[in-house]
C-alpha cells in the first residue's frame, strides 16, 4: 500500500510533516489496515499485532473522536486505553477508510495537568451532587409556600400582594428548574460511561414521553406527530433510561422556546452510508429527529448550543439554560456511543437529530 498516494488525497494532513508521525489507516469498521513504525512505537506493540486489531483496542472513544476531528477539521486530544498518555489525533476520511495522524501534543497541556483538570472537574461535579438537597430544599419551600399563598391558604391578600406572590412563585419555579438541570449536567459529566443496556421498544418510549408532555403541548398550542420510516426497527438494545431522558430534554428545549407551531418526531433505521457520512463506524443505528417549524436559530445560537461554558461569556448568555440542557443531552448520547447535532434553516425549521447504536 502506497501511503503517500493516500495522504496526497487528503487536505487536512501535510504529507511531508505527517510522515514522521505515527500514522494509522483503518477501514470504516475501525480495523487497522496499515501502520508505520512510529505507530508501533507509540502504541508499544508490534506492527503485526496492530494489523490484527481494531483502533478501539488502543484509544478511548474512537468513534466520537474521529467524528469530531472530521467535522471540526482540526486535531483532537486522544487518550490511549489504560494509559495516562495523550496525543493530538488528526483524522481524514478517504475512500479506504480513515487516516489517523498521531502527533505529540506539544501545544497542549501536559499529561499531568490534563489529569489534574479532569480530577478537578470530577470533584466539582461530586461537590454539586452532594449538595443537591441543600440547593433544592430552600427553593422547594419557596415554591410550595408561595403557591399555597397564591391559592389563598394563607388568608386574603390585596391585588398588589397577589401580584407579588405570583411573581415570587413563577421565578422560584424557574430557578428550581435551572438548578435541576445544572445538577443533571453534573450527573452526566460524572457518570458518562455508566450505562445499563437492555432490549426495549424505542417507539413506545417516544410515545410515552409525548403523552407525558401532552398537557403542555395543548397549553402552548403546539401540535406533535410521531412518524417512522418504512424499514424502521423499533426494538433496540440500549440504555432505556438514558434514551428517555434524551427525548424528554430535547422536547423540553423546543417547548420552552416556542408558543405555537408543529413538532415532528421521526424515527428511522438509517443505512450504512448515512452512518458513515456522520463519521461513525458502519452498523445498526437508530435515528431520532425532532423538527420544529417555529424554533428558529441563528448562526450565533448554533455556535454555542451544546456548550454552556462557552455561551456564558457570549452575547447569547440568555440561552445558557438551553445550552446546559443540550450539554447534558450530548453527554448522554456520547455515553451511548452516538452523536447529536442540530440543523436550522432560515424561516423554515430547526431539527435536532440523535444517532445511537442499537
SSE map:
Elements: H1 3-8, H2 15-18, E1 22-26, E2 32-35, H3 37-42, H4 47-50, H5 62-72, E3 76-79, E4 86-94, E5 97-104, H6 111-130, H7 132-150, H8 159-190, E6 198-201, H9 202-212, H10 214-219, E7 222-228, E8 235-238, H11 240-255, E9 261-268, H12 272-277, E10 285-292, H13 299-303, H14 308-311, H15 320-335, E11 339-345, E12 349-357
Parallel strand pairs: 7-9
Antiparallel strand pairs: 1-2, 1-5, 3-4, 4-5, 6-8, 9-10, 10-12, 11-12
Can you walk me through this structure?
This protein has 358 residues and is an alpha+beta fold. The chain folds into three domains: 3-107, Beta-Lactamase (2-Layer Sandwich), CATH 3.30.450.20; 112-190; 198-357, Heat Shock Protein 90 (2-Layer Sandwich), CATH 3.30.565. It contains 15 helices and twelve strands. Strand 3 and strand 4 form a beta hairpin. The chain is elongated, with a radius of gyration of 24 Å.
The helix/strand class is alpha+beta
Q: Which CATH class of the largest domain?
A: Alpha Beta
* Tally of contiguous helical segments: 15
C-alpha Rg, in Å? Answer: 24 Å
**Order of SSEs:** HHEEHHHEEEHHHEHHEEHEHEHHHEE
Mean pLDDT: 83
Helical proportion?
40-55%
Which sheet architecture does the biggest sheet show?
Answer: 5 strands, antiparallel
Strand content: 15-25%
CATH topology of the largest domain: Heat Shock Protein 90
Amino acid at each position: 500500500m502506497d501511503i503517500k498516494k493516500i495522504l496526497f488525497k487528503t487536505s487536512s494532513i501535510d504529507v511531508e510533516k505527517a510522515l514522521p508521525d505515527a500514522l494509522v489507516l483503518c477501514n470504516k469498521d475501525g480495523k487497522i489496515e496499515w501502520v508505520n513504525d512510529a505507530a508501533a512505537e507509540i502504541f508499544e506493540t508490534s506492527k503485526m499485532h496492530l494489523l490484527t486489531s481494531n483502533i478501539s483496542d488502543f484509544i478511548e472513544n474512537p468513534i466520537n473522536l474521529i467524528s469530531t476531528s472530521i467535522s471540526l477539521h482540526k486535531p483532537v486530544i486522544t487518550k490511549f486505553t489504560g494509559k495516562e498518555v495523550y496525543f493530538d489525533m488528526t483524522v481524514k476520511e478517504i475512500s479506504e477508510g480513515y487516516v489517523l495522524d498521531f502527533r505529540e501534543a506539544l501545544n497542549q497541556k501536559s499529561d499531568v495537568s490534563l489529569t489534574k483538570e479532569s480530577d478537578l472537574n470530577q470533584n466539582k461535579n461530586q461537590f454539586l451532587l452532594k449538595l443537591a438537597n441543600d440547593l433544592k430544599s430552600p427553593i422547594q419551600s419557596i415554591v410550595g409556600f408561595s403557591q399555597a399563598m397564591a391559592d389563598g391558604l394563607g388568608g386574603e391578600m390585596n391585588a398588589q400582594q397577589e401580584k407579588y406572590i405570583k411573581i415570587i412563585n413563577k421565578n422560584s419555579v424557574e430557578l428550581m428548574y435551572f438548578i435541576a438541570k445544572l445538577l443533571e449536567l453534573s450527573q452526566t459529566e460524572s457518570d458518562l460511561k455508566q450505562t445499563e443496556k437492555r432490549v426495549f421498544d424505542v417507539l413506545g418510549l417516544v410515545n410515552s414521553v409525548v403523552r407525558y408532555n401532552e398537557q403542555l403541548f395543548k397549553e402552548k398550542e403546539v401540535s406533535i406527530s410521531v412518524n417512522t420510516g418504512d424499514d424502521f426497527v423499533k426494538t433496540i438494545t440500549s440504555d432505556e433510561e438514558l434514551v428517555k431522558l434524551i427525548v424528554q430534554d430535547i422536547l423540553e428545549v423546543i417547548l420552552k422556546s416556542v408558543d405555537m407551531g408543529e413538532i415532528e418526531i421521526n424515527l428511522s433505521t438509517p443505512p450504512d452510508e448515512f452512518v458513515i457520512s456522520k463519521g461513525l463506524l458502519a452498523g445498526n443505528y437508530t435515528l431520532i429527529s425532532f423538527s420544529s417549524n417555529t424554533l428558529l436559530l441563528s448562526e450565533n445560537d448554533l455556535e454555542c448550543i451544546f456548550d454552556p461554558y462557552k455561551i456564558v461569556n457570549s452575547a447569547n448568555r440568555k440561552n445558557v439554560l438551553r445550552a446546559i440542557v443540550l450539554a447534558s443531552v450530548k453527554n448522554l448520547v456520547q455515553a451511548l456511543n452516538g452523536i447529536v447535532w442540530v440543523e436550522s434553516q432560515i424561516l423554515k425549521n430547526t431539527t435536532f437529530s440523535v444517532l445511537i447504536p442499537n
